[in-house]
Design goal:
The protein is α/β, with parallel strands linked by helices and about 290 residues long. It has helices spanning about 10-20, 25-30, 35-50, 65-90, 110-120, 130-140, 195-210, 220-230, 250-255, 275-290; strands at about 55, 60, 95-100, 125-130, 145-150, 160-165, 170, 185-190, 215-220, 235-240, 245-250, 260-270.
Length: about 290
């Protein structure tokens, strides 16, 4: 049986189109024509020997084979880009200043640091865990090279959305959904101190639904909030990203509470044309998020 060698460029167009939800947008990001991307997808399906995409209305969806291919494509691209970065960037020295939300300190940061260190052994990352306003201020004042922050109505000159996630009601891991609030009593909330985008979203949703609430616990840190939720002091609101094992995310239906909006996540750069190491780190963050 002849050996199949998948083309990296074809895999990149395929993975980018799925990530963006549009192969036209993928063509734009990769500086290719839409017809060139279509040809690449056709070639990839020929190499795979099976359809990877199927029509759904006006759009496209992955087949079962496409879902398998996507996982391998991301891994191959990550290894390819890591090898290229290691060869080109092994001699780079200095630092990259990264800011990010507390949500990603335990889940995303270790993976990102490991991949970056392998590619740039002489560079160091100075990571700062902070709230949205502080992160954006750091980027805008040049104190941070890169920041990963929730979209909160404020922006920086060089920002790119890297995804959107649903807000979810968060309860203790073992708490029955039916017992989140007692009949006739306000819903207890365990939330971050104001100002907080997700705290505001929870309160606005409850007010619109006519559901009484009270702040049962307030903390300056997310770790404190998780401790309160885990102890059963109240429910919180967050996305499913980076949740610790002692809490769980519930849909509005499961929780018996009002639906919550989607929340965008953006990567902010201090410079329009960042230094090579900053650009490499941004790429690693984007690929890590895309891989879930």
């Amino acid at each position: 049986m002849p050996r199949v060698n998948f083309d990296i460029d074809n895999l990149r167009s395929f993975a980018t189109g799925i990530e963006l939800g549009s192969f036209a947008q993928a063509a734009e990001r990769l500086s290719r024509s839409t017809s060139a991307v279509s040809a690449q997808l056709k070639k990839l399906e020929q190499q795979a020997g099976t359809p990877l995409l199927r029509k759904v209305g006006r759009g496209m969806a992955l087949t079962e084979a496409g879902e398998v291919m996507l996982g391998y494509a991301r891994r191959l691209l990550e290894l390819n880009d890591e090898a290229a970065a290691a060869i080109r960037g092994a001699e780079l020295e200095g630092r990259v200043r990264l800011g990010l939300q507390e949500d990603f300190g335990e889940s995303l940061l270790p993976a990102v640091l490991g991949r970056f260190a392998r590619a740039h052994p002489r560079l160091r990352i100075e990571a700062r865990i902070a709230r949205n306003a502080e992160l954006l201020d750091g980027v805008n004042r040049g104190r941070l090279d890169l920041a990963l922050a929730w979209e909160a109505g404020t922006d920086s000159p060089h920002a790119e959305r890297v995804g959107r996630w649903p807000m979810r009601w968060i309860a203790a891991a073992g708490a029955p959904a039916a017992k989140l609030r007692r009949r006739g009593e306000p819903l207890p909330l365990a939330v971050l101190e104001s100002p907080c985008l997700l705290r505001n979203a929870a309160i606005e949703a409850l007010d619109r639904a006519g559901i009484a609430w009270r702040v049962a616990f307030s903390s300056a840190s997310l770790a404190g909030t998780w401790a309160a939720v885990s102890a059963g002091l109240g429910v919180s609101v967050r996305t499913p990203l980076g949740l610790p094992a002692n809490v769980r995310a519930l849909t509005a239906k499961e929780a018996g509470l009002p639906a919550l909006p989607m929340l965008g996540l953006a990567l902010h750069r201090a410079d329009a044309e960042p230094a090579p190491a900053v650009a490499q780190l941004a790429g690693i963050i984007q690929r890590t998020l895309a891989a879930g």
